[in-house]
Amino acid sequence: MKFKDIFKNKNTMNAENQDKEQQIDDATLETNETAEQVIVKELSIEEQLTQDLASEKDKHLRLFAEFENYKRRTSKERVELFKTANQEVLQALLPVLDDFDRAMIEISKSEDENLLKGVNLIHEKLKNTLVSKGLEEVEVKAGDAFNADFAEAITQIPAPSDKMKGKIVDVLEKGYKLGDKIIRFPKVVIGQ
Questions:
Q1: How far apart are CA 145 and CA 165, in angstroms?
Q2: How far from each other are the two terminal CA atoms of the chain, in whole angstroms?
Q3: Does domain 136-192 sit in CATH 2.30.22.10?
Q4: Which of 7, 16, 44, 175 suits a disulfide with 186, CB 3.0-4.6 Å?
Q5: What pLDDT score was predicted for residue 9?
Q6: Sign (positive/negative) of CA torsion 66, 67, 68, 69?
Q7: Which residues does 5 contact at the CB level (< 8 Å), separation at least 6?
Q8: CB count, 10 Å around CB of 178?
Q9: Which CDD domains match (predicted)?
Q10: Helical pair 87-109 and 113-132, crossing angle rounded to 10 deg
Q11: Which pTM does this prediction carry?
C-alpha cells in the first residue's frame, strides 16, 4: 500500500509540476506578448514622433516661404510707393509749369534782359527741382509719327503736306512722366 500511495503522490506531484510549468509557460508567453506590445508601442511612438517632426518641418518651411514672399512683395510695393508718392503734387504743379513756360515766351519778347535772366533762373530752378523728383518730359514734337500710347490727339486738321498725314502737326500741351508711368499725356494735333 505504501507503494500505491507513493505512486499517487508521484502522479499528484507530476500533475502539480505540470500545472506549475504550464503557469510558468503562460506567464512567459504573457511577458513576451507584453514585451512585443511595448516594442510595437515604442515603434509606433517613434513613428508618430517622426511623422510629427516631418509635419512640423513642413509647416515651418511653408511659413518661412510665405514670410519671404511677404517681405519681397512689401519691399516691391514700398519701392513703387516711393516712386509714385510725389505723383499728386507733381500733377498739381504741371499747370504752374505750363504757365511759367508761356510766361517765359512772353518775357523773352520784352527788351529787359535782367528781367529775362531772373525769371529764367527761377524757371530753370523749378524745372530742375521737378526733374530731381523724377519728373520727365515726354519727347513728342511736330513731324513725329502719332502713337496713341504716348500722346493724346485733340483734333485732326488737313495735313499741310502728304508727308504730314498721320503725323503730329502741333503740340498743344507737353506731356510728362514719373519714372516709367505717364502722368499726363501730351496733347497734339495730327494731320489727316
A1: 9
A2: 146
A3: yes
A4: 175
A5: 53
A6: positive
A7: none
A8: 20
A9: GrpE
A10: 160
A11: 0.56
Half-sphere exposure of 133 (CA within 13 A, CB side): 16
Residues of the chain with pLDDT under 50: 7
Locus of grid cell 499528484: 12
HEC profile for 20-89?
HHHHHHHHHHHHHHHHHHHHHHHHHHHHHHHHHHHHHHHHHHHHHHHHHHHHHHHHHHHHHHHHHCCHHH
Alpha-carbon gap, residue 157 to 142, rounded angstroms: 13
Cell of 106: 512772353
DSSP codes joined into one string, 170-185: EEEE-EEEETTEEEEP
Residue reference for cell 533762373: 121
Identify whether the C-beta of residue 7 lies closer than 8 Å to the C-beta of residue 14.
no
